[in-house]
């Protein structure tokens, strides 16, 4: 199965007592195994809604969403990384990493061993007995990603995971997370407001419109495949791709 995520003619309408809000309209895209797909679009256009469909939290009003060839079961094959790292302050870093595994009743020792390997690989050796408050923002985000990785999800969903970080830290963490996702051969969907960040990390970027959300264009940047964010930013193609995405975002026509 090469195409891990398939959206086929997906429409979604939120129903409330008073009204119906059509949010997604005819969304079609696929994400292949190992690919990093970006979603950029105006605030409130439906980006988080697309992630909720992939994780099986909600179902489409019409059309189909398939992950790994079947409709997603609630959070079964995907892991979430959110804007805030959501680490619990009263648990040690290792306690936080093991939280998802505890909820899923996975083998604690095996998960712990995997966590130790990942901590070592990603420069966090020795922090397992410390608490999240003793770490920098960037380290906390890496812990949060390790907590997701130990669950061995097939898909990682990143919903603006860097927006709470300051600019310097952000550059660093974008590089770290890219490195972790590629090295673990993860398939990921990455939501961001920041065009720079999308080009820094993704293989393709879908530019979305709002009310209702449609895909205006999917921009292929696989020419940057394997090139880390810090090198992409100084590549002369970066500005051209930036312009392409910005022009597409600003263009009102279909
Ligand atoms: N549970 C819900 N019930 C009704 N309307 C909803 C619900 N969740 C989201 N919406 C509406 O659907 C639209 C899309 O919301 P969504 O959260 O997917 O946008 P977004 O692109 O992630 O926004 P942001 O960039 O601000 O995070 C918004 O207009 C929002 O008000
Ligand atoms: Mg959102």
The figure for the number of domains is 2
Ends apart, CA distance between termini: 32 Å
Number of strands: 9
Q: Give the helix level as a range of percent.
A: 25-40%
Can you count the helices?
A: 9
Query: Can you write the helix and strand succession as a string?
Result: EEEHEEHHHHEHEHEEHH
Structure overview:
The chain is globular and about 50 Å long. With 254 residues, it is of the alpha/beta class. The protein has 2 domains: 3-77 and 153-250, P-loop containing nucleotide triphosphate hydrolases (Rossmann fold), CATH 3.40.50; 88-152, no CATH class. The longest helix has 17 residues, at 167-183. Strands 5-6-7-3-8-9 form a 6-stranded mixed β-sheet, with helices on both faces. A 3-stranded antiparallel β-sheet has the order 2-1-4. The protein contains 9 helices and 9 strands. It has helices at residues 47-55, 93-97, 99-103, 108-121, 137-149, 167-183, 195-201, 229-233, 237-250, and strands at 3-15, 20-32, 36-40, 62-67, 78-81, 155-159, 187-191, 204-208, 215-220. Helix content is 35%, strand content 24%. The structure holds adenosine-5'-triphosphate (ATP) and magnesium ion. The site of adenosine-5'-triphosphate has 11 residues, from β2 and α1.
Characteristics:
254 residues, alpha/beta, six-stranded mixed sheet, binds adenosine-5'-triphosphate, binds magnesium ion
Helix-strand blueprint:
Elements: E1 3-15, E2 20-32, E3 36-40, H1 47-55, E4 62-67, E5 78-81, H2 93-97, H3 99-103, H4 108-121, H5 137-149, E6 155-159, H6 167-183, E7 187-191, H7 195-201, E8 204-208, E9 215-220, H8 229-233, H9 237-250
Parallel strand pairs: 3-7, 3-8, 5-6, 6-7
Antiparallel strand pairs: 1-2, 1-4, 8-9
The structure holds adenosine-5'-triphosphate and magnesium ion (MG).
């Amino acid at each position: 199965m090469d195409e891990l995520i398939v959206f086929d003619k997906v429409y979604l309408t939120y129903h409330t007592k008073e009204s119906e809000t059509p949010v997604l309209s005819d969304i079609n895209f696929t994400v292949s195994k190992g690919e990093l797909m970006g979603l950029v679009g105006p605030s409130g256009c439906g980006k988080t809604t697309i992630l909720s469909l992939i994780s099986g939290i909600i179902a489409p009003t019409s059309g189909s969403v398939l992950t790994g060839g079947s409709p997603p079961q609630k959070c079964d094959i995907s892991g979430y990384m959110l804007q805030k790292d959501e680490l619990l302050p009263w648990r040690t870093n290792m306690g936080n990493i093991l939280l998802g595994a505890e909820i899923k009743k996975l083998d604690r020792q095996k998960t712990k061993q995997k966590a130790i390997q990942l901590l070592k690989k990603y420069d966090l050796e020795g922090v397992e007995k410390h608490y999240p408050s003793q770490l920098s923002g960037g380290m906390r985000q890496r812990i949060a990603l390790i907590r997701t990785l130990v669950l061995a999800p097939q898909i990682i969903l990143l919903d603006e995971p860097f927006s709470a970080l300051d600019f310097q830290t952000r550059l660093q963490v974008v590089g770290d997370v890219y490195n972790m996702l590629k090295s673990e051969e993860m398939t990921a969907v990455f939501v961001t407001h920041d065009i720079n960040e999308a080009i820094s990390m993704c293989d393709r970027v879908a530019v979305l419109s709002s009310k209702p959300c449609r895909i205006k264009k999917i921009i292929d940047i696989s020419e940057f495949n394997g090139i880390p964010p810090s090198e992409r930013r100084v590549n002369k193609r970066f500005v051209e791709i930036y312009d392409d995405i910005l022009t597409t975002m600003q263009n009102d026509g279909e």
